[in-house]
Amino acid sequence: MQRSDILYGSITSVLLIILFIFTSNDPFFGDAISSISRASNHIYKTSFNEIHFPVNVDPGHPITIPFIHAFAWSIFGKFLWVSHLVNLISSALTLILFVTLAKTKTSGTNAWVGAILLLITPLFVSQTINPNLHIWLTLGVVGLVYSIEVKKTWLQILFSTILVIVHLQGLYFLVPIWLWWFLTKKDVSFKKKSFHIARIAVIPAVCFVGWILYHHSITGWYISAPNYSGHRGFPGIKRFIVNALIADWRIVDYGQIALFILPIWAMVRKRTSLVSSHPFILFVVIFFFNAVAIAFTTKTGPMHRYLLPCLPLILLSNVILFDTVKRWMLVLVFIVLLSGHWWFYPGKVMGDATISYRSVFPLLEQAKKDFDNEPFHTYAPLSNPSTDSKLCCDSNDYIPLYDTSIDSVKLVLYSNISGDFTISELSQLNKWPSKTYQKGNVYVQLFSNPSFVKNPIIGPTREISRFEKWFIDLKHKIKGNGPT
Q1: Residue numbers of the domain that contains 429
Q2: Closest CA to 379 of 94, 133, 30
Q3: How confident is the model at residue 1 (pLDDT cuts 50, 70, 90)?
Q4: Can you give the C-alpha Rg of the chain in angstroms?
């Protein structure tokens, strides 16, 4: 083991341990609930007799990762820290594989610096501390690219299988990676390349087909979840174009634009010609494939995390340039990337792409305390009960507003974390007494229905700025809604 491995490996380990210490008791948040904790809870509660999602909230993804969480609970206890540790392990393995892959193209020091840059990337950090499926997809992508680089067939089979048994989007990465290999592998005949891919595909195909048949035997449908019909399916030409443009924004958002500085500099200033096997070309292929596929098959557009598995490849194209650029350029990349943790758009619904979402947890606790633990009606991702988010407590403390009129409920929770409130609902809520809680850029606002609450708790209210109102109106216009 080289000295750089010990030094940078220790730094990376310390950063991961610090993340774990400070976030190990964080509740499941957002997609972590819909894709993991609900299913893990169901598996655990049924003593592993029912290994599937609760039927009425089944997104259609393979059950592998929820099963792993439930299995870990059965050994160590059903605690949040157990799930955070499982997720942290996947992140650590991803970083180790990234370093191993990068070492095939550059020095060990450069490889570890690249891993640290990946670790401080806002999107990677947020997915490290919030159990999710896309960190496992990232592991699969990095592992598959590495196994192709070192020509190890059994690893190619392993990581191809991981991609198809973790998340339905895994196919969106598996196909372009192997397509890229097939088209760039000039020294192997068409027949041999076809045979190799066919051999690699056997086990992943058996696992994927086996899953969807098993899934169909339980639910009566294969992949397209009936309860997700409002999210999946062709959105129309206009929305397809908007979704594709959103994907372009997502990949450079929250400081990730820094990862394009060195590759573009190399091509423009150094006249570097990128061969088809270059990591940047592979990044473009995978990103373009996912941007088009997601834009074509979703009605709500791509989330930041959908593109997480692309980041190690764009980072790899940076790493191999470290020895050719001046120190100030590396510092610039670091500063811009790190600054992404503080990027904020007034009027934009905040998701889980940065760790800023964590500020909502203490705000919710304070609101629950002030309102004597009364149940709040709201929209996702805050509408999930504590049984799924905290793995304990009340099962009716947060109640979904879907298919429910706000006039019929007592307390409504609104936040820049929740994005499904309609214009008419917001207009109605603004007539009710309220109290706002805020920490940093995150806020929650509790509205009391005057028809049910005679002595409402009233506190400071948040006034939106002119720019924020313009931004909100712009979003509604793009979505085809009227102004607020």
Answers
A1: 355-479
A2: 30
A3: low
A4: 23
